[in-house]
Design goal:
About 5% of the residues have low confidence. The chain is flat, with a radius of gyration of 31 Å. It contains 4 helices and 2 strands. With 144 residues, it is mainly alpha-helical. The chain has a two-stranded antiparallel ribbon with strand order 1-2. Strand 1 and strand 2 form a beta hairpin.
Length: 144
């Protein structure tokens, strides 16, 4: 069970819980509707599976975060997020600072390699002139 420090945290948690349950009811309504459309359209390829899996996964992790279900699933997802640098909350700020510094020094870091920016004169591409068209000669019928 989740513990709270003050009344404000309880209010915030209840608001998040209410939003979760509203999202869950919306999910169930949409899944039910898409299932009916699938049945009425001939029940071929089970395309509602994509809605069920993608939206359901999102709801599953939200439920884990709110501890409606076991919170260890959310903690597992969070630990994976920490291993991927571009998913960290402050990654954008760090990358912007890195690019600002590298633009001043002329080198850019694209992961593991370092490349230096070379200032070279840009060459204009050679423009080919189109071949001259032959004039079209119109033949007129001759009278005898």
């Amino acid at each position: 069970m989740k513990t709270f420090k003050n009344e404000q945290e309880i209010k915030e948690y209840v608001c998040l819980l209410k939003n979760f349950y509203m999202g869950l009811y919306s999910y169930l309504a949409v899944v039910g509707g898409t299932f009916l459309v699938w049945i009425m359209s001939g029940a071929g390829y089970f395309w509602p599976i994509w809605i069920i899996v993608i939206w359901g996964t999102s709801l599953f992790f939200r439920a884990s975060k709110l501890e409606v279900i076991d919170g260890s699933y959310y903690r597992l997802l969070y630990s994976i997020r920490d291993r991927l640098p571009f998913l960290k909350p402050d990654w954008e700020d760090q990358k912007q600072d890195e690019l600002k510094k590298s633009s001043l020094t002329g080198s850019v870091d694209f992961g593991t390699e370092k490349t230096t920016a070379k200032k070279t004169a840009a060459k204009k591409p050679a423009v080919k002139k189109p071949a001259a068209k032959k004039p079209v000669v119109k033949k007129t019928p001759t009278k005898k």
